[in-house]
Amino acid sequence: MEHFQNSDKAAIALVASNKTDAFVLERAKKFGVPTYTFTRKEMDAGKLLEKLQAEKIDWVILAGFLLKIPAELIRAFPERMINIHPALLPNYGGKGMYGHHVHEAVKAAGDTQTGITIHLVNEHYDEGKVIFQAATPLTPEDTPESIAQKVHTLEHRYFAEVIDSLI
């Protein structure tokens, strides 16, 4: 959020979450950004789309959002909904592949690198057009926890910058 605080290209107009205790809601309030919480049922019934349209949202940026997004919502933001995934897609993508599940799979496979993928969202988990990828080397000593730290560093380094370049 800091990155966009004084941006002349984009502003964060709303932070929405299906988790009422999500830390991002606290951060948003700290930065004076309006928040909105919703249930899966409300999202599936079109309430989230109604809210985004009412707020005149241009882009939807997903981070840590695990629910399957309704096709109607995706179609409302063609080429304007992006997600960040904690692996180098197409590896370790799809339903159930998030957070520690990804890092444990990377470790179990003995991969020598991992990274992040920023991609457009389509109607299939983690299959949208890749916009950007960044990799980090791994060693045999890495654990799922240290892998998570390396990925988190990449997310912080690149996500806002890539968003900025798209808008």
UniProtKB/TrEMBL annotation:
The EC designation for this entry is 2.1.2.2
Enzyme class, broadest EC rank: transferase
Query: What molecular functions are annotated in GO for this chain?
Result: phosphoribosylglycinamide formyltransferase activity
Q: Name one Pfam family in it.
A: Formyl_trans_N
One GO biological-process annotation of the entry reads: 'de novo' IMP biosynthetic process
CDD domains to which the protein is assigned, alphabetical: FMT_core_GART (cd08645)
Source species, domain of life? Bacteria
Q: In which pathway does it act?
A: Purine metabolism; IMP biosynthesis via de novo pathway; N(2)-formyl-N(1)-(5-phospho-D-ribosyl)glycinamide from N(1)-(5-phospho-D-ribosyl)glycinamide (10-formyl THF route): step 1/1
Q: Where is the Formyl transferase N-terminal domain?
A: 5-163
Any idea which UniProt keywords this protein has? Purine biosynthesis, Transferase
Q: Name one GO cellular component term.
A: cytosol
Its UniProt entry gives the catalysed reaction(s) as: N(1)-(5-phospho-beta-D-ribosyl)glycinamide + (6R)-10-formyltetrahydrofolate = N(2)-formyl-N(1)-(5-phospho-beta-D-ribosyl)glycinamide + (6S)-5,6,7,8-tetrahydrofolate + H(+)
Q: Which InterPro entries match?
A: Formyl_transf_N, Formyl_transf_N_sf, GART, GART_AS
Q: Which family does it belong to?
A: Belongs to the GART family.
Q: What is this protein called?
A: phosphoribosylglycinamide formyltransferase 1
This chain's source organism reads Algoriphagus alkaliphilus
